[in-house]
Amino acid sequence: MATDPYAGHSPLVLLLVLLLGLATAAVLAVYGCTTAARHGVGRAGTLVLLRSGGALAGAAAACLYAWGVVHLLMLDETARDLGCKEAVGPAHVLEIDSYRPTYIPLSLGCHVRSGTTYSTGVPGYLNPTVGALAFTAVALGGFSLLESERRATRDFKREKRRQ
Q: Is 147 exposed, middle or buried (0-12, 13-18, 19+ CB in 10 A)?
C-alpha cells in the first residue's frame, strides 16, 4: 500500500492531541493553583512549592504544545507547500520529494533529495520551550518525590526512637 509522500499530519489525530493537551493543561493548572492556594504561597513548604511548580510547568508545556498543534491544524495544502518552499529556499524548491510529519518534536518536515529535512509549520521557539518546560516539570516532580520520601523516612526514624 503506497502512501502519499506529500501528506501532512492527520487532522483527526491533531484534533485528538489538541483536546488531550488542553485537558491535561487544565487539570495540571487547577492542581498546581489549588495546591499552592491551599497552603498559602508565602507559608508553603518546599514540598508544596515543588508540587505546584511542577504542575504549573507541566500545564504550560501542554498548553504550548497545543498551540503548536493549532498551527498545524491551520495548514492546508497550499500553506504546507508555501511553507516548505520558504523553508528550503529558492535554490532547492524543485528538490522537495516528501513531507515528514512528526509529533515529537512537533513539526512538518520538508525532505529534499540530498537527505536534508527542513522544519516548517510551527514557530521555531515552540519545541525548545516545550522541552524545557517538560524537563522542568519532571525535575520538580522528581524533587518533590525525593522530598516526600526524605520526610517520610525522617518521621519514621523519629517514631522508631520514641518506642
A: middle
Helix runs in 74-163, H state only: 77-88, 126-162
- What pLDDT, on a 0 to 100 scale, did the predictor assign at position 2? 44
- List all residues 6 or more positions away from 100 whose beta carbon is below 8 Å from its beta carbon: 108, 109, 110, 111, 117
The answer to whether residues 33 and 41 touch, using CB atoms and an 8 Å cutoff, is no
pLDDT in tens, 105-117: 999 999 999 888 8
**pTM, to two decimals:** 0.85
Q: What is the DSSP string of 11-54?
A: HHHHHHHHHHHHHHHHHHHHHHHHHHHHH-TTT--HHHHHHHHH
How far apart are alpha carbons 153 and 163 in whole angstroms? 16
The secondary structure of residue 94, as a DSSP letter, is: G
**Residue carrying C-alpha cell 489538541:** 18
